[in-house]
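Record Jasmonic acid-amido synthetase JAR1 isoform A, 571 aa.
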Amino acid sequence: MLEKVEEFNMDKVIQEFELLTRDAERVQRETLKRILEDNASAEYLQSLGLNGRTDPESFKACVPMVTHKELEPYIYRIIDGDASPILTGKPITTMSLSSGTTQGKPKYVPWNDELYETTMQIYQTSFAFRNREFPIKNGKALSFIYGSKQLKTKGGLAARTATSNVFCSAGYKCAMRALQSQCCSPDEVIFGPDFFQSLYCHLLCGLIFREEVEFVSSTFAHSIVHAFRTFEQVWEELCNDIREGVLTRNVTVPSIRMAMSKLLKPNPELANAIHKKCTGLSNWYGLIPELFPNAKYIYGIMTGSMEPYLKKMRHYAGELPLLTADYGSSEGWIAANVNPQLPPEYATYAVLPHIGYFEFIPLLELENTKPLGLTQVKVGQEYEIVMTNPAGLYRYRLGDVVKVMGFHNSTPELKFIRRSSLLLNINIDKNTEKDLQLAVEAAGKLLAEEKLEVVDFSSQVDLSKEPGHYVIFWEISGEASQELLHECCNCLDKSFVDAGYTSSRKVNCIGALELRLVRRGTFQKILDHYLGLGTAVSQYKTPRCVGPTNTRVLQILSENVVNNYLSTAFN
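=>
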């Protein structure tokens, strides 16, 4: 029996958001009170001497700011099966696994029903604002989403990525139907054990329902670009499956074959139409609107570490708008995109004051690192976010740096700047992920003149000999001349404009930047490595700076280097 789909009321959701953000300070106090009352019996809170107090002043005086490392002893007790109230009042039965691409190994983060509720609140809020600007009717979404492998911890808890925890929640499908965002692929494809077979069938389902697809989405932009790069390789095979009504033998998972057999019927007319569309395109420009004529937009997280994929995404999207999704992490959601008409590069996220309690550490005032409340932040300033959520994280330093761009009523609108920990640093230099991205973009323009592109990139600090130097790993789309790659290497070196870097390079306290070219498919091998660790593709982020502890990724990169170039920019 179908679950009853509750009617989605766009105007009501927007009104509620406007009401909540008018007095964000009061809502924040109420949210903190609710979280602390619900979890008053937690051993962690009791040990800190709150004694039932729920006001922000007592909370900040008693509860220290922490990182994941400080909470690990408590989290590992939960993982090992201790069901007593450790971090939360009610037992935690599920864990989320972070993507693990920053530190090299996934982190366990507590997950509960309250976090699912905050996810739905974010989804509903952003959908309401999105649908007001770009209305969709009752079509389907081509969603490149993938359930991760579910692990069982020693104590019997389920552990999977945060996105998989959302997809597995009982109300998820019903909620997506209400938001007119139903995925056109069956569950067997989403939760299939083989990523490539699932991706192939997502593409096939999209083509079968091509007239009904109203938007294309994934959690991250990377997955969408990856999907259509794959389409370029397999489109003729997809056409053949549609023509014959029989799934390719390359899909071997029985449950996926069974599910697809119910959708796939011989349709030579559709196969010919798709074939004609594909052969009529120039270098695949505008592929998505050609395949899906009723698509209104492309949707997914496109900011932060996803920005390097925007150029390729726009190539596939043609005239279709790119709408960036909301701002959150494995630890919980923070803010919604309520200005969907802004291009991803200018996107801001309005904090929902009722889904967690938020504090902000000012980055400029190094002496006074006392965090500020949600409504005390200043426009134009950068902060590190501290989060208290309903699933046992109290004053948790998220490691994200954001900039306040403005206010929506009394709640701040944030722009994601960078991960606070992700720095290329040898001497007095400090280069962030954004600096690396800008350098790669600048050098990538030289490649573009030869109709080549950077497929993906990463970096490391090489301290194996004095002086240490930056290493940039590039995978590119074709053959480039030695002269061009040497020019790109010099351009990368000159594009790091941080004063600490340029002054150190001039006096040789930092050695010449090295560009290492890796063979095609290297970044796919890195993705495969993370899939093996249990990461879901839809949650995957290419590691932009590989630390010395991330030995396997460094090994994959090193084994696949085909050429290297040293900068002469400062000679």
